Amino acid sequence: MPELPEVETIRAQIEKKTPLTILKAEYSTFHNSILKPKSKHFDPVGATISDIKRKGKLLIFLCDDDKYFLSHLGMSGSWRISNNKITEKHTHIQFETIGKNNKRIFLGYVDPRRFGNLYFYHEEEALTFMDGLGIDIGTDEFTGEYVHSVFKKYPNKMVKAFLLDQKYFAGCGNYIASEICARAGIRPTRRTGKITKKEAQLISEVTNIVLDQSIESNGMTFSGGYSDTEGKVGEGVKNLVVFYQKVCGLCNKTPVKKIILKTRGTYYCPFCQK
């Protein structure tokens, strides 16, 4: 599933092409499983995408006339940019646009598993939707004080599983949560109420390391997974210390253990994490 680094990679690549004025929109026969709600709030044709932002895993296309496109990539979604019409299989939504210097650019949403969602909202609806997300773990608001306060409020959660809750930790996904726990030296099964202020601060600090390394590597690609707007895979796997690893990348000697927490595969080092 694309997590914060992968979504940020796509955001930055599309941003370089803005502004984009939509001349035509095409949809596959399966687009209604992606476009939410099924009755569009407005026709995107004629709108100009002036900028693109991100909150957590959500891409936010800012358009003129208070129009927003909100895109969640689900399990396998991505956006493609091309000078020619995109013919890639599983392209379910495609915008033909005019970009800088009157250059024709095609922007297509590709999603083999169709778990992603796209919303056409006006500003009030868009802001309400975004308010449902918690603090973005990639911002300065994600501090040790914030982490400790949330953990104290919900003391009986397991740390790794709770980090996946987008109402509090927007942008955190499965590999990121496992890597945060590893680098902070915390067992994924530890209860949130047992995390000290010092450990909460460490969680905040190592989160920046995990995110920065993954973003610098163009995101993270596992088999058959994420690709960017050019269809290229991310190389962030080289930075992993426990997730999908056989031996811990921190101590370089202890076999990594895998457990299932809340249906998600979770990896940790029995020596480095307490």
Protein described:
It is a single chain. The protein is an alpha+beta fold and 274 residues long. It has two domains: 128 residues, N-terminal domain of MutM-like DNA repair proteins; 134 residues, Helicase, Ruva Protein, domain 3 (Orthogonal Bundle). It is 24% helix and 26% strand. A nine-stranded mixed β-sheet has the order 2-9-5-4-3-1-7-8-6. The chain has a two-stranded parallel ribbon with strand order 10-11. Strands 12-13 form a two-stranded antiparallel sheet. Helix 1 crosses helix 6, helix 3 packs across helix 6 and helix 5 crosses helix 6. The longest helix is centred in the C-terminal third of the chain and has 20 residues. It is globular. It starts with a helix and ends in a 6-residue tail after the last strand. The mean pLDDT is 96.
State the separation between the terminal residues, measured CA to CA.
28 Å
SSE string = HEEEEEEEEEHEHHEHHEE
Question: Strand order, biggest sheet?
Answer: 2-9-5-4-3-1-7-8-6
Question: What is the mean pLDDT?
Answer: 96
Which helices and strands appear, and what pairs or packs with what?
Layout lengths: L3 H12 L4 E8 L7 E2 L11 E8 L2 E6 L3 E6 L5 E5 L8 E8 L5 E7 L6 E6 H9 L3 E2 L7 H10 L5 H5 L5 E2 L3 H11 L12 H20 L40 E5 L2 E5 L6
Helix pairs in contact: 1-6, 3-6, 5-6
Describe this structure in a few short sentences:
With 274 residues, the chain is an alpha+beta fold. It is built from 6 helices and 13 strands. The protein starts with a helix and ends in a 6-residue tail after the last strand.
